[in-house]
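Take our chain:
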Amino acid sequence: MSHYHAVQRLLSVFQSQASGGGQSILDSIKIAVLPIAKVFTMCFLGFLMASKYVNILPASGRKLLNGLVFSLLLPCLIFSQLGQAVTLQKMLEWWFIPVNVVLGSISGSIIGFIVASIVRPPYPFFKFTIVHIGIGNIGNVPLVLIAALCRDASNPFGDSEKCSTDGTAYISFGQWVGAIILYTYVFNMLAPPPEGTFDIEDGNVPIKSPLKDAPFEQLPLLSHENVFKESGASKKEKIMEFLVLLYDKLKLKQILQPPIIASILAMFLGAIPFLKRLIFTSDAPLFFFTDSCIILGEAMIPCILLALGGNLVEGPGSSKLGLRTTAAIIFGRLVLVPPAGLGIVTLADKLGFLPAGDKMFRFVLLLQHTMPTSVLSGAVASLRGCGKDAAAVLFWVHIFAVFSMAGWIVLYLHLLF
């Protein structure tokens, strides 16, 4: 016990010496490393559960868990937190968050293109490399980090409750843009090469059925048989059929995922004062619904981390990318992208685009540029047939992100406080 007290005393000496400059180095390292350590621990437990020794989370179980997180828990978290925090006034103040996500994807993709041009990844993986450097995880990892950071009473952002609600709201407010980027830009970029598959060994190219595997831009525009068949069809029916076709072509089904629907709902209900008082205030008649969502939303973080850890079981050994390309993706994503992001956010701050004095706002903007590769891009990759390679990249990027994120967060806290 006395040993413990000695350590405590030593720490307090360190802190009191440094407390002249606001945050001590030791404090900011602690604040940066602890949330990531928590994330890593939960991922490791998922990895353990999925390993062949325990095998409680086999591939089928992880698929169910991923589905549950994506269709129920994440929408609940977004709906409850964003709905409580958002007002019309705030939405107008927060306009830079979605813009930041788009700018981050553009600058990341440019860096990805430069890196890919230098490294020359193996044949069908050029666009794959660009996407995996360009698209960061703006959803679940920042949510987990903010939750772990705010849980600590000594966090620099003040009150735990407010810290958590604000942080989650800012991140959720950027997520709908992220999903649109994923299911349009990423979906297109990860289209299989002309051979129809990413599994290209020496010349044994499988023959593909033209309609089933073709990316959606190559499908005949009217693959609906009876579209516009009878010219005598009423105008209303024609309009309906046109809308169905539009819905199909624009991939709305993929954009309108449950988390996005939850974001739109929360923004709509939160922006109308009457509805907000009806649903989101703690004495509202319908608050029981919001409260149920809060309870379910709290389960999102452990579930997503267990599933992510489990997905890493197949990870490192099964990729055709080669060491050089994998290393380039890690370096590009974790070392080259964050300084570009820091530049974007600093410039926006100088131009007066950000709400004055809101540290959490700036912190979330910076975090959006610092994250490892998006886990959802792994989901899109497995839709497109390069899931194994994506899993391997995600594995290594997340392992190294533990160290890089800690370093960047120390820097950000130093710049902010």
Notes: Confidence is low (pLDDT under 50) at residues 9-21, 202-231. The first helix runs from residue 2 to 18. The radius of gyration is 23 Å. Residues 319 and 389 are 5 Å apart (CA to CA).
